[in-house]
Amino acid sequence: MDDQTASLIYAPHLQSNLSTIFTIKFLTAVFSGATAGVLGLTNLAGFLLFAVSTLVSAALVVFLKCGGKPSLYIGDGKTLSTRGAVMQLLLPGVDNFFGFILTWTLLYGIIHVYD
Question: CA–CA separation, 22 vs 45, rounded Å?
Answer without folding.
Answer: 24
